[in-house]
Write a structure and sequence with these properties.
The chain is mostly beta strands. It is 2% helix and 56% strand.
């Protein structure tokens, strides 16, 4: 059976469901929910999900390009502890540029399991870095769990620390990194790894596959990665590569066509680089 994609046509109501993906076994569905923030220099947004859905991933992007702004950069993208919502934050830096952040929550349903039953098989681990100018850390899923999605939270004071990396690491964990930019402003980076029990009673073995794609060399590089045929999109990530003062993430998000999209940019100082997009797919074997 081929992996199926069902696009749902919805109104512009916040937190609407946008798309549903089904794996080749027909036992796993993943769905995208979305919303948008108010325009702000530090926009924040939480996207809840409804019904039997369990949140396993998510992301967002800022609309700085649409008004020719200086940029608003991602600082957080993570789930709540009950797997019922996804939160995204961003901020401008040194130059005022109020933006809207568009956020997306990725959630999962498993055939034959209620939300409460599925929650018994989903687990999140968190790792926190030291308080430094370039904080980084890796969170791994527990033994016996399959990685589904990654998240991050860069916490700082003053001018601020912003995300440059959040992506799946070796199929079992999630790496996250942040940096200050043209001014000292240390922070702590938290990385979140969301996993599902590999052997689901009455369902089968849950396996993942991770694909990645590298952008061209640019001041504002973007890339998109697809999951393998027969896998349902469950998460993803972005990795910005730079050579001077740095690039910052402004986009790290699931797409309705089953891909993951990533975007980074230099800021105020020219520094072209690359961004690599990662897509995590999941299926039952």
């Amino acid at each position: 059976m081929a992996a199926a994609l069902c696009l749902l046509f919805v109104s512009s109501t916040s937190h609407a469901q946008q798309a549903v993906f089904t794996d080749a076994s027909g036992k796993i569905e993943t769905g995208i929910f979305y919303g948008s923030s108010a325009r702000s220099s530090h926009p924040t947004l939480t996207i809840p999900v409804s019904g039997d859905w369990v949140v396993i991933g998510g992301g967002g992007y800022t609309d700085w390009q649409s008004h020719g702004g200086y940029g608003s950069h991602l600082t957080a993208s993570f789930p709540d502890s009950n797997f019922s919502s996804w939160t995204v934050y961003s901020k401008d830096h040194m130059t005022n540029d109020p933006c809207i952040i568009y956020g997306y929550a990725l959630a999962i349903r498993v055939q034959g399991l209620t939300r409460n039953q599925l929650l018994q098989h989903v687990r999140m681990t968190q790792a926190v870095s030291a308080y430094v100018s370039y904080p980084n850390t890796i969170a791994f899923v527990d033994t016996g769990y399959t990685l589904l999605g990654c998240g991050f939270n860069d916490v700082s004071f003053g001018l601020g620390n912003m995300a440059v990396d959040s992506y799946p690491f070796n199929n079992t964990g999630c790496y996250a990194e942040g940096k200050d930019h043209d001014a000292v402003s240390p922070g702590t980076m938290s990385s979140f790894a969301i996993g599902i029990r590999t052997s689901l009673p009455g369902v089968g073995n849950v396996v993942n596959a991770i694909q990645n794609s590298l952008s061209s060399y640019s001041s504002h590089p973007q890339a998109s990665a697809s999951v393998p045929f027969g896998y349902a999109l469950s998460g993803g990530g972005a990795d910005a590569t730079y050579y001077g003062i740095g690039q910052l993430l402004w986009k790290n998000m699931p797409m309705v066509n089953g891909t993951w999209s990533a975007g980074s940019k230099d800021h105020l100082v020219l520094d072209p680089g690359y961004v690599r997009a990662y897509a995590i797919g999941v299926t039952v074997q």
